[in-house]
Amino acid sequence: MLREAGDICVQLLARLGFDTKTAAPEATAPAWAHPGLWATVRMKGGEVAARFGEIHPDLRRDHDLDGWTVAYGEVDLSSLPAAATRTARPLPKTPGTARDLSLAVPRGIHAAEIRDVLQASAACLEGDVALGEGDGGEPPVEVVEEYHPEDGSLAAGTRSVLFRLHYRAAGRTIRDDEADACHEKIVAALLAAFEEDHRGPLRRR
Fold first, then answer.
1. How far is 146 from 160, CA to CA, in rounded Å?
2. Same structural domain, 108 and 184
3. 122 and 199 in one domain?
């Protein structure tokens, strides 16, 4: 749950236009945080943009939440630099397409980390087909949702994360077979990158 709370903060800040990453906690924990079970989200320059973690046991008792594990995250809007002024951009003249990727992700691997590896893996593509913005301006790789199935289909400590990858061809309409081939190549590179990871490999669902 701690990791999921951090991913939500990172995704929220990404929607606001900020590139961030999870990091170690500060020296003093917030009053709401369980000691040792909280962390921060920092800007690339090191500034703290958000804090997240499990709620302190005393706070859980005060609110009749004993027996529950409660995660909390807060974004410090006052610490954020002014976002770059958004300018209008021309709409694509040809449509792109998208492919979804559902993964079983072990605890300890952030969705944002997987997103970054997917984008880096696109360097293996050849020709004029590449990851690109969606037709509605979506980022090339979106984290669509995270959830914990209750049907026992996943091992303990594993969650399901759904990604959406957007593909475009330069100056023309991309064909379905091209998008499929590029998608499989990127997914293969992603799975290989985590195959020997000590936190556990990723599994396609």
1. 6
2. yes
3. yes
